[in-house]
Amino acid sequence: MQHTHLIRKRLSTLTGLLLAVLGTTANPLLAQTTNSETADSVSNAPPAIPVLQIKADQVAAKVSPMLYGLMTEEINFSYEGGLYGELVRNRTFKANRTNAVYWETAGGAAISLDTNQPLNAALNVSLKVDTSKASKNSPAGIANGGYWGIPVKPDTAYRASFYAKGDHFKGPLTIAIVSTNGETVFASAEVPKISSKWQKYEVILTTGVIAPTKENKLVISTTKPGTFWSKHGTVWFQQVSLFPPTFNDRANGNRSDIMQLLADMNPKFLRFPGGNYLEGNTIAERFDWKKTIGDISLRPGHESPWNYWSTDGFGLMEYLEWCEDLHMEPLLAVYAGYSLRQQHIDPGTNLDSYVQDALDEIEYVNGDTSTKWGGQRAMDGHPEPFPLHYVEVGNEDYNRASQYEGRFAQFFNAIKAKYPNLQVIATTVVTNTVPDLVDEHYYRTQEQMEAQSHMYDDRARTGPKIFVGEWATRIGSPTPNMAGALGDAAWMCCMERNSDIVLLESYAPLFVNVSDLTSTPRGARSMQWPSDLIGYDALTSYGSPSYYAQKMFSTHHGDAVLATDSQDIPTYTWAGGRGRGGGGQTAAPRQVPSLFFDVTRDSQSGLIYLKVVNRLGTPQPVHVQISGASAVESQGAATVLKADKPDDTNSIQEPAKIVPVTENVDGLGTDFTREFPPYSITILELKAK
Ligand code: AHR
Questions:
Q1: 276 C-alpha to ligand 1 centroid (Å)
Q2: Is 0.90 surpassed by the pTM of this model?
Q3: Per-residue pLDDT tens digits for 140-149
């Protein structure tokens, strides 16, 4: 594209100069910036005002209608302790083989895990509770503190349920949400009778006029030590569950506040179930989708590669319903015969059953009800097929590309034979098959993102399209700060400007529970991976500056990329270096732009969206010239995300410190100069005719 070539030329000249005088400030061009990490100080000489020419009548590319999506996996307590509504931690007692972790006793009860009284083959252990010390003054039972707390809100109905059976114990049991110190009972209900055979019990716990808190626990207790004939009662529990009201009132559904944050992004697709979560540490610990569907009490659960247990209450159907609720298309990643500790299946007959599993999974998603797996989906409550256009084979095979070739080809051929219209995505470049798309991942620093902000401008327009299936500017923990959002926005300008070849993009990771950032081992804390888009604890959630940058981009764009030209784009000196995902290469010192833009137009309304990212700590004037439009109204709108400092951020305590503000603006037209604030991302909406 024209503007790219100009910038390139300018940058390469600057880089030459820089290399010649590296370490000096003699060159006035280089003196615009310093070699410091933030590189934000400016020279005394007034820099030339950057000029941006927008050719309103020249479409450089079509914007992919599917460009902005989401990527998700179970990491950082994304579902359990996150999106998934379940409030009880270790509800099936399988998180640890020997101890009932996250459970404690109430009153004088004694508890232990019991493999002799399984609920069924999937939930093959239960919690045995000795009630013989129970009394009116000291009820005996069990308590669970949830995922770093059990939230309560005023006038809210919570669904509690559990399986139980008694021996010399017939009840009653009291189920209550109680403050951690035991002083306040927020809601309680009674199950009068417990059978001697496994049975499911359900009650509704309704709160009254209370202040929202999370320092609470769920307590199930009894005042009866046993029956009339024996005071040595025992009661066994399995699948103890507590759900708040959920988004769209789904019985096994999701937290409304987090769903709303996602809905506000207007995402077009959801890549799931990973990521590493798809692969598992071992083949046995992969995302084995057939074990994640149907009645949740028949799902065995599995250990995740992020070192904590997954009940699989959030399984394949729940991913699909999540898509349905937010009007997203599933982008289904199928297990490709490789797990993280390098267990893998070579191509050939040994791989056939895994390929068949993938075909079955696709049929479960989009087959009609006359098919075996479409029929199963109907029995699981969803007769309507889900829309499906994209299937990804595996995850991040770039380090093992040669052995991926054969595995990919076997999956690709089988999927294409049965579903010729599906777009099949490879996780790295393959040479003996031509995938429809290749998934590229970029976890970068701010400077690296900015340095690659024109990377796709010169990519070949032939061959497979691109899915940037995981990317993030990794600055800030647990969630990225404004510097991260600026790097993200520079990168999103690049992807949007090139979305004729970059068809899909999704930031990763999506979620983090911010309750415990430091405990060891890794699976005990709530964050396994810093810099995540959306943070939450048991009670509230928030979007990071990167979240708001994403939301701004995905909700403000046209369907056509306009041709542009530019001059005098400022640059800063980056000392170079490397970052995760950098392919092991250390970047040489270089000049990097400090202003980024891209321009799209809505062909129906004529509205032009001009995105400008100013990574500098000084206001940046830009002279905008628009040709190819008979007129541009002087009034328009500006949506601006900005911060005082690059490390400013949002948090659970300050969720809205940095949020976009939209206001009507004046002074626009076919030729105008506008100042863009320090550390800012701006989207100008220009009404062109
Ligand atoms: O997003 C976190 C992890 O990064 C993903 O699971 C994996 O695909 C990548 O390495």
A1: 6
A2: yes
A3: 999 999 999 9
